[in-house]
Predict the 3D structure of the following.
Amino acid sequence: MREAGIGRVLVASLHQGIGDLMPTRLEFYETWLNPDGLRLGTVGLAPLNAVLSFLREEGEVYGPVMARAGTYAADWLLTGRRLRGSPAFLALPARFRARVAVGAAGRLIRTCYRGNRAVVRLRRGSGTLEVRGSVFCTVREPVNAPLCVFYEALTARVLQAYGLDATARVAACRATGAPACQLAVAVDLRRRRERVPSAPRVGIAEP
């Protein structure tokens, strides 16, 4: 059982992001993101919070690490979903694919952490994806910059994977004092983007 509903892909993608961008610090973070915990899916909420707390103290590297982790998580969780990249699916109207993609992003966000709740509102290519209960944004005092970059990167990657020319950006963050984390999504309904290559696998996948 996953402790506190934390998905293995969330932990694995975070570990990979740190390894990519902070290789000299990886051993330190493996105090909590240890190989056995990664393999067995036993990294709990307390170790994860410790990692996030130390990452925030690292300064500007926090955002790039979380963005890299969100991209990895999207690619690994989308592995095997052939419909999204099939010629028949990509031939469908962008408006339809946008709704499917944003809905899929919301489900993947919940897969990463069961305490998340994603609420999607999309109309004519513009809308929001609201994340309630963000595991990244529980802080004692409000901070100056959003902490939910992981969701932004995950959602943007999903939109790309569904063949859409689209953007996703953090519009509000619970860590900065907003009621919930909110992504603003904008899809160009006139154009189609080719599916982007998947990230490399590292031997850990969500069951």
